[in-house]
Amino acid sequence: MPQSLASVYLQVVFSTKNRAPAITPDLRPRLDQYLAGTAVGTGTKLVDAGGVDDHVRLLVPLGRELTIADLVRTLKAGSSRWVHDTFPGRREFAWQAGYGAFSVEFLDLGAVRAYIAGQEQHHRAATFQDEFRALLTRHGIEWDERHVWD
After folding, report:
1. How far is CA 70 from CA 25, 62, 67, in A?
2. Could you tell me the CA-to-CA distances from 36 to 43, 141, 145, 146 in Å, in that order?
3. Among 17, 24, 38, 99, which is least packed, fewest CB within 10 Å?
């Protein structure tokens, strides 16, 4: 086959450092827009973004030449710098060191989009840590609790 094609969707999740409630309602839409623009700059697009005050959840297709690590590094570094430059009073804003990236079946995109849209309601009953542990378990990922949080 002379052409290289891919359909790889990821749900990417990362928290603010120490899960600080730093993503305020006034910041959320602007941060999501910034992340969307940054994703386009990497050669992909942001299908959906959501979360609550201590984390973001992104749905992105991963292109053939883009690595997960490069995508997340670019999103986190650029958005952190943008927050510091745009909101001088938020110098304490930072992302956690790590992230989670989970595959999404094309046929499940609608369900994941609905889940992202319902983050505020969902997090009335579950913490970020509980939700992240459930994702790790559902995707068969083993982890050491000592090294997941910062």
Report:
1. 28, 11, 5
2. 11, 28, 31, 32
3. 24
What burial class does residue 88 get, using C-beta atoms within 10 Å of its C-beta: 0-12 exposed, 13-18 middle, 19+ buried? exposed
List the domains of the chain with CATH numbers.
9-147 (3.30.70.1290)
Q: Which of 85, 105, 73 is nearest to 30 (CA)?
A: 85
Amino acid at 105: E
Rounded to whole angstroms, the Cα distance separating 23 from 15 reads 10
Whole-structure pTM value: 0.91
Token pair of 90, please? 């938020």
